[in-house]
């Protein structure tokens, strides 16, 4: 049996800490909700220092609160990341802020807000299945 929970959240575009109720994601009819307290998260990946954004990645929460993120772009390498809000031109999305070496090479663009779990896989509108 699948239970879908929808939560309406109003989020401003800032990187300040949010309450746990604001961290809930709405679950699609075919997806499973993920929250900031989950051991696993499905979110877009960003390199904030570069401005680069990538498709959805699968993150596993670590004891220190960080996440180890798997992503098709980096194949077998896990990225260390934290979760924060990525805002571009008023479009804000929870995302993995990954520790990626870069040099400010990307134009900032909105991240994929459709990342979710479907059939146990991390998917999004523009993401391959993980």
Helix and strand topology:
Layout: E1 31-32, E2 40-47, E3 52-61, E4 67-70, E5 79-88, E6 91-98, E7 116-118, E8 121-123
For the structure shown, list the relevant keywords.
single chain, 130 residues, mainly beta, 5-stranded mixed β-barrel, 3-stranded antiparallel beta sheet, 8 strands, 0% helix, 37% strand, globular, disordered N terminus
Task: Give an overview in words.
This protein is mainly beta. It has a domain at 38-123. 0% of the residues lie in helices and 37% in strands. It contains no helices and eight strands. The chain has strands spanning 31-32, 40-47, 52-61, 67-70, 79-88, 91-98, 116-118, 121-123. A five-stranded mixed β-barrel has the order 2-3-4-5-6. The protein has a three-stranded antiparallel β-sheet with strand order 1-7-8, with no helix packed on it. A hairpin with an 8-residue loop joins strand 4 and strand 5 (79-88). It starts with 30 loop residues before the first strand and ends in a 7-residue tail after the last strand. The model is unreliable at 1-37 (pLDDT under 50).
Give me the count of strands: 8
Helix and strand succession?
Answer: EEEEEEEE
| End-to-end C-alpha gap | 23 Å
Instruction: Please tell me what the overall shape is.
Output: globular
Class of secondary structure makeup: mainly beta
Strand order of the largest sheet: 2-3-4-5-6
Number of helices: 0
Mean pLDDT across every amino acid position = 74
Given as residue ranges, the uncertain stretches (5+ residues, pLDDT < 50) are 1-37
Fraction in beta strands:
35-45%
